[in-house]
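haha ok so turns out i had the wrong file open the whole time. this is the CORRECT one, sorry everyone. sequence first:
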Amino acid sequence: MRRPALADQPLSYGPVGGTLAPTLLASPPDGYRATESSVRLGSGAERFAAASVELMHWQVLRRSGIAVADAAGAGAREVTLGDTVVQSLPLAGLRFAAPIRVVRVLQEPRRVGYAAGTLPGHPLRGEELFLIEHRADDSVWLVIRAFAQPATLLYRIGSPAIRFARRRYTARFLRALLEEERAS
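then structure:
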């Protein structure tokens, strides 16, 4: 029996869209660990527009050392609702395939971003939200919210190492759009 194509695979978690819930940190889904991190990217409409374009072209992931390819193996272009992509995560000299699907896209006057949910084959089950916010004080922020749990017993056994790797990648994500990081 043939395995369904990656684009036809169901998400490996629920509740879809949970990273947008205001109560995520206080009440994560049962069995999941929730996190939120943010960094100020600058200020002004130009900075918001530039950061939004970068985010929506996968630059947070790519500048963090993660290759992003669509389900057919071609390089993913602009983030679109329903996109199925495979991230190739370098870790400890190995590369891990981490398939995801874009489950939400936000295109609001002062918020732009996307939420991606895990698919079978990803080391984790859960969702991650990448969001650019242009706040009332004119500051521009990258906000990353997530909830996740290890996908298999093997990854559960290695969960301390997975939590370490997640913190490391989140730190890279937060630096990815900082102008001073790219200038150095």
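The longest strand covers residues 94-107.
again sry for the mixup
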